[in-house]
Each structure stands twice: as C-alpha cells, then as structure tokens.
Amino acid sequence: MVAALFFAVWCPSLVAKAQVNNNNLTLEKLELFASVFYHIRENYVDETDDEVLIQSALNSALNSLDPHSGFSSASDFLEQKKAEKREYGGLGIEVSLENGIIKVNHAIKDGPAYISGIREGDMISSVGGEPIKGKTLEKAVEGMRGAPGDPIKLIILKPDNTEVELNVVRQIVRGRAVRHRIEKGYGYVYIETFNNSKLTEDLIDALNSITKGLNGDLPGLIIDLRGNRGGLLEQSVKVSSLFLDGGEILSAKGKKLQDIQRYHAEQGELLPDTPIVIIINSGSASAAEIVAGALQDRGRAVIVGRRSFGKGSVQSVIPLSRGNGALKITTQRYYTPSGESIQGRGIMPDVLVAITSDTGKIKKRLREDSLRNSLSNKDDTNFKEVYKKIIYPSDDWNSSDDFQLHKAIELLSLEQYDEIIESNMSIESFN
Fold this sequence. Notes:
By secondary structure, this protein is α+β, with helices and mostly antiparallel strands. The chain is 31% helix and 21% strand. The strands form 3 sheets. Strands 2, 3, 4, 5, 6 and 7 form a 6-stranded antiparallel beta sheet that branches. A 6-stranded mixed beta sheet has the order 8-9-10-13-14-17, sandwiched between helices.
C-alpha cells in the first residue's frame, strides 16, 4: 500500500509516459523502485530520511550517465543561484567526486590551495574535520566555502598514497583572465579562464598593448591555453572570431537531428597577417578546446604541447516543477569545424612537445576519458603511435625554463609553420 502510494505520488508523469510511449522505463521497474524504497523505510536497522534516499537515488541515476550530469535538491539549487550573485571565500580548485572522495581536477595557480601544495590529481578525504565519504559533491564544495580569511583543515591523499594534513586560508579567488607580455620579439598572451564576461575586451586591450610595445609590428603571437579549464561558450566563440574571417567555429549536436547549433565567426579578423601558435596541455578543456580546435581546423594557428583534456559536451540546467530542484544533464556534443568530436579525445597538437626530458613511461594524466562513466567517442583514436613523435628537451635543459614556450617561439620563425598551416587547410569547407 505504502509502496503503491509513494509510486503514484512521486512519478505520475513517468507512469503516463511509460504507458503511452512503451519505453524502457516500464511501470514494473518503477514499481520495483517503490518496493525497494518501502522495504528500506520499514526494515533498515536505523531511521532513514526519505528525502536523502530519493536524492541519492536520483544522483546515482544521473551520475551513471556521465560525470557532468547530476541532480540538485531545491535547497542546493537555490544556494547555487545565490552563490552566482555573491562573493565568498574559496580554495581556488576545481573538483569532481570519484568513489566517494573529492578529486582535484585543477588548482588555480597562486590560489590558496595551490600555494598550500595542492595539485591536480590529489584526493581530498576530509574537509573541516568531517569525512567526505557519503556526501554529495555540492555539499562537499559548500563545506570548502566560507568567509575570506578563515582557515580550513583538509586531509589530502597524494598520488603516491601519502596522507597530508593542510590548513588552507580561504580567499576570494579572481583569476586574471588575460596576462600578456612581449617574449623575444613576439606577442604572448596567457588566458587562464573563459569564465569572464569581459575576456574578449581584455584580450583586445592586451593585443593593442603588445602591438604598441613592438612599434606597431607584431611578427607573431603565442596564445597560451595551458591549464585553462574553459568557461563561457559565448567567450570562446568571441575569442575565436577575433582571429577568423567568417566561417564556422564549432557545431553542437544533440540526440535529435534538429538539435544542431552552428556558431560562426564575424567577418573581418583582428590580425590577418600575424602567425599564431597556441600552446595546450591536458589541463586545457572545454572552451579552451573550442578555440584551439577552431583555429587549428581553419588553418589559422599551429597547436603545440600535449593532447588536451577532451571535455566536448554541453550541459543544460533544467529546473523541475513545483520547486523540486533541478537537473544538470548533458544535451549536446561539441564538434570542430572539420566535424571532429572533442569528447574524450581532446585536441591533438600539430607539434607534440613535452615539458620535461623524462622519456620513460608516459605519465597518465587526468583527462575526460579517465573520468568514471565519461561519454564515449565513436571516432576514438589509439594515441600510442603519435606519442612516439613527442619532442623532449635535452638532458641538460634548464628545468626552470619553459620548453613548450621555447618550441612555440622557435616554430614561428620556421618554414614548418607554413607547412602545418597548409596541411590543416586541406579541409574543404567551413561554412
């Protein structure tokens, strides 16, 4: 009786759809869920919280789809919307939840976590004296936030299984969107994030400043996207458009044939005669991959470094009726102008360049395809062969010098640059 009542109240619309559409989500399976829920409530050794049980079930269902889909309860969704409008102290890290523990995907350089020694690949097992196990990602992240200046104790598990206890002081983290300088006679811009609505304006200002510093003659430009975890799609399109004269930047395709969006550059590019080299690594993701992929496919830039992260999917936030929270669900995949999917593959550099002289076993880097339940790519490629072509610094190379940047500068003055551009331009149409 209780199971049937719960089922009828909780999911009437799903029942209707199952009966009308005769899809895989059958009435019997939903009744099974209600039956399990009922027996947990009646027979579990301790008292249970109905809301927690249902939220956990919803989260498990969505997390089984891919690592970027999830469910937010009404209170969590409200808190997320409030957080978008206020300032709070944080640690300067991007994280995911794996096997019940927080994994650090990225630590913003010079942020509080980075300064304390936290790096990509570290695991956080405890926040503020409370174990992470059993908490949702939203609750764990909420525990890391607090008033700027307040310290928080973290227990970190390093990749070598050593455990470290750290006290990290929360700060208001505002990564500078663009840093620029003149590097050996060439322009250099580092874009840390695309999660800034004024990024394109700041980038134009940086390019004007560089050009002025070179007396109006910009012989080449290096765009550094290493460690850039992405951000606003709008900004990736605007940045790409600065260096393209019309034509396609990317397309986003969903399940249905009509779910296709195409993004095009405006006519007239900013630096039509300036050679461009883009540096990427395994930390370059999402919006950063859109820019690198567009300029590579369009023959506008040569890509140097290591294969990028491979986050080529679009998530949509769908508020639920009656204020019951929201779903964040993957609805589309990104494609470069040549029709290649970024998902799980990333952008492969034209010139593979290592940062160190270690030519031993390739270190497994955190990428999209290493995340649990990551979306597959039917065009997936075996990268073992191309890794044989990696350029390593010599054994006597000064490790404090940036070898990838060195090769990018070198490439701007070589005929190889033009050869790579011509090869990439063999793709016939981008309109």
